[in-house]
Amino acid sequence: MKPIHSYSITRYVKNVGGYSSWLAEHIDDAVIVEEPLDIWLKQTRILDQQTSSTTKRLFTTMRTPGDDINLIKGWLLTSGALSDLGAIHSITYTGKARLRAQQSNQLLITLKANIPFEVEQFQRLEDVNSACGICGQHSIDSLLDRLHQQASGQNLPFVPSLALAELPVLMEQLLAGQTMFHQTGGNHACALFDRTLRIMDVREDVGRHNALDKLIGANADSLFAQSLPTVDASSMPMGVVLSGRVGFELVQKALMAKLSYVVALGAPSSLAIDLAQEAGLCLIGFIKSQRFNVYSAAHNLTHNGEEKTR
Hints:
25% of the residues lie in helices and 33% in strands. It contains nine helices and 16 strands.
């Protein structure tokens, strides 16, 4: 399945000074694809040499086809469903399309034997659209509790300052890396940047939350290895740049991925600001070439690159 589909359309263009007010053009237009992805989970239990397996549906989400496995890996990590991808035996496509050597719209997560997973806690009560992150999921209170438990069990590292002059450059780099957006104008994107303000990766999807899950899933090794002494500090992921607005769920995902900065083109929600302030994450919105708003942890922004602590 391709992430972009071409449609034959009519485009009207304002005709200034001509005989007709509008000119009609028949063109092929590139449009971002949105399709459902049905996600199932298989658990196996081995007890007293007896093996039993259960398969249950988790949820269905709308997304841009492609990068599906990284989308699921990112969701498993950022939702707190799993803390280690090593618990997964496999993630495979199932369904009829698989028989035609195509990727289907159904994925099966198979866990290794005896891995605990409370399916009911992470099942969504209804199908959701691609703009929704925690619809029907566990409550905001449980998410906050999980984040506090994560923070209390860590020695928080030095947080490098972000130079004010570099903020517009990050947004420009994100825009330059949006391959599908340049063709369609119909999808979201997010980028991961390191401590040298180098863009490490860009991921796109019709859904904001899907794009971030894809980014985190694709870069899980570096994101969740930040505390290892063997990792070069300058190449460690520091934050994400988002193409749209920022809701609570996007800040939550960034925190679960141990990031210190969220920089966005659009506006944050009140819950996003509250969570960022409580967690000490630097949240920046409405970024333009000559103006932006800082909603939390402003002390991490300086005119130079000196290090500060959270």
